[in-house]
Every structure is written in C-alpha cells, then in structure tokens.
Amino acid sequence: MDKRLKKIATVFMFNTGVVRREGFQNSQVDTVLKRLHEVASIREKELNEGTLIYNANMTEMKPEVGHQLPIEMYREGYEYYVETHFHPNSHSCFLQRNLMDLMVYDPVQFMYLFDQPLLMMVGDHSDTNYMSEQAFELAITTKEKELYYLKDATHIQTYYKESVVKEAIEKLNQKRLALFQKEFKKEVYQIELKDFTPLKSYAILSNRLNFADKKYTYFYSEKEKTKILKLPKVMPSYANIDSNQEYLVGELGSLYCLKNIVSDYSFNVVNSYSVALLHSLGVKRVTLSLELTDSMIETLITNYLKRYQKRPNLELIIKNRWELMVLKFSLDNYYKSQVKYLVDRFKNYYHVVTKNNLTYIYDYKETIRGSDEKYFKMGINSLREENYEEIWYFWI
C-alpha cells in the first residue's frame, strides 16, 4: 500500500491467513467455526492453568511420517526445515491461541489499492500457486502487472535450488533496473585513510578496579575512567561526556560527538566499505561483527587491502556473551523484584542485568573463537575477551 514503494514484487506469496482459516487448498473450509471455538477454549485453559499450549512441532515428527505427508509443500518443508536446513534457534511451532489472529488475517483483500507495477513469481509446478494467482486477479488497479512462472520450481525449492534462485534474482533485477535507466557519471572513489601498523595485541572488558595483566594492551570498563570507557548502546545525551576520555562506543551518534573512539560490535561491520567509512570518520579501532565467519573475515581484510592499498586496524571479540537486547525500561521496577534470568521453552537461561534503569539481556551461551595466531595472520590487530560474569555481579 505504501506509495513510497516504486515497484512491488513477490516470490511464492503465501497467504498464511487463508491457509490457517480455510486449510491448504481449501481443505478445512467446513471446520472454520469449530476450530475457532477450540482456540477460544485453549485461551481459557492457558489463563486458568497458567500454561502455554503450542501446536505440533515439526522437528518432533518421525521421518517416516514427514516423508509421507500428502501435501507436497509440507513434505518438502519437512525435508528443508528439519533435515537439511534445521537451525537450533528455530522453534518450528507457535502458540495455538495465535490461530485466532491468523485466521482473520488476509493480505489479499486490499490488492486493489496497489497502483504500482506488480511482479508476482511462482513455480511452474508448485501447489501454492493458487494464492499468488488469486492475489494477481484482485490487483485490478495497477496498469502494469506480471505473473511469472519460474522453471522447474516448487515452493520450497525457491529457498535453495540454485537454478530457481538465480532465475528469480535475474527477473527481479530486470524489473528493478528498468526503473533506473540512467547514465551515471563515472568518478574515482577516494577516501582518506591511515595505513595502520600490524600488531598482535589483546584487549579485555573488565569492571574490576585496578585490573592489570601484562597480556592485555587495551583495557575496557563500564565504570572505571582510567581505562577505555565503554558507553551503553542507548545514549540519551552526550552533554556530560568528557571529550578527552577514550571511549568504546556502540551507536552512531558517538561518531559526531566524540573524537577518541573505538567502535564496538553493535555497529555490525561486515564488509571493507564499513571499515573504511569508520576509519575515515576518526574511529581508531574497528570491532568486527560477531556474526562473521573466519572465511568472511579473511575476505573482508583481503578486499580492504585491494581497494585501499592500506592496512585496517581491526579488533575481533574471541570470548563473550552477546548482548542480545536493550530495553528502555527496567524489568526490576516493573516486577518490583530483581529479575536475573529469562528462560525459554528449551530451558535456556538468558541473563538479565539492569543498568541505569535499562534492561540488558545476554545470550544463554558463551561465544568462543579458535586459535589466536590464525586471526593475527589474517590481519586482525587486537583480540578482545569480555568477562561478562564479572560485569553482571558488578552491577548486581
């Protein structure tokens, strides 16, 4: 509906509302009211018993059942989500009471409001095509629309089958580039960058006062100003910040307010362009994203050297617990008691710490990378360890 969008494209649109309401390929039309009553009963049961009721978890399905599911999309879905591309953080189920909201959701009822060019892609032998075809027919306002059939493709194969993915991307690019048929002026991209000396240094985040260890070159702290002071990711103001202090910063505003800074992993640096930009803005040391694999790190550094003919000054965290979320209110104040953990349904404990009326939620598991020397050889200048157990107790 948003008219800022110049063109609209979908790949195997899935109308989750109509499937939850009427069943796949309209197989449960006769039981809509019955299932709504069942969901209402489930909501009552959860309220009265204080329990959460989930639908069947696909990961618990036996292979001989999953491989014989009568619907192709579900059968291939079992193979994809459970056998070949399973991820431990994917729960593969939802609360049954959510069916009440899903059953009244319908993304195609307002298709007539689209007046932008529309591209809808489906597979030439997919059992989910009827959803896109119905939506396409209802898009009566747009003057430019196309229903495109990908070759040799089912719904699930669009996720991973190389030929299908390639064809879909090529079609998307064809439509996208048609919107920007312009001659661009070619100029040499230049950026002022420092050539950093290769180092083998270590850093540590610790709130222990008077911490000293010859192994570490850089010392970060959330409280001790004699060290590099770590600022929170949520900064309401920089009014009382000492401009002479060295800081480990985690949000964009700091780049414009401070000078003596090291960027933290929350900048999510994943490519050489980001490293160059941060260095050009005065960042002394750039911490790479926690999500990078070893091969991605090696590629990033190689590309930086090729593009800029200079060495970056990179820091990599080799031991920590991810700071998953920062809430702008205190759970302790809300519950009127100290909240130490959040527990998911797999019994994983996520540590919770309240700092300055903000709530910080940390990953349940510790991230530890491999050989130090390997990263130094790649071109990393500093390896950081973060002692979060110590930091938690400091704030508690």
Characteristics of this structure?
396 residues, alpha/beta, 31% helix, globular
Explain the overall architecture.
By secondary structure, this protein is of the alpha/beta class. It is 31% helix and 18% strand. It has 13 helices and 16 strands. The chain starts with 7 loop residues before the first strand and ends with a helix. The model has no long low-confidence stretch (mean pLDDT 88).
Number of DSSP-assigned strands: 16
Strand order of the largest sheet: 4-5-6-7-8-9-10-16
Number of helices: 13
Largest sheet: 8 strands, parallel, barrel
What form results from the Cα inertia axes?
globular
Uncertain residue ranges: none
Along the chain, the helix and strand elements come as EHHHHHEHEHEEEEHEHEHEEHEEEEHEH
The amount of beta strand, in percent, is 15-25%
What is the radius of gyration computed over CA atoms, rounded to a whole number of angstroms?
26 Å
Task: State the separation between the terminal residues, measured CA to CA.
Answer: 48 Å
The structure class reads alpha/beta
Instruction: Indicate the mean pLDDT.
Output: 88
Helicity range of the residues?
25-40%
Quick gist of this model?
By secondary structure, the chain is α/β, with parallel strands linked by helices.
Topology readout:
Blueprint: E1 8-11, H1 16-22, H2 32-49, H3 63-66, H4 72-84, H5 99-103, E2 118-123, H6 129-138, E3 145-150, H7 162-178, E4 201-205, E5 218-221, E6 228-230, E7 247-249, H8 254-257, E8 261-263, H9 272-280, E9 283-287, H10 294-308, E10 314-320, E11 323-327, H11 331-335, E12 341-343, E13 349-355, E14 358-362, E15 367-368, H12 372-378, E16 382-386, H13 388-395
Parallel strand pairs: 1-2, 2-3, 4-5, 4-16, 5-6, 6-7, 7-8, 8-9, 9-10, 10-16
Antiparallel strand pairs: 10-15, 11-14, 12-13, 13-14
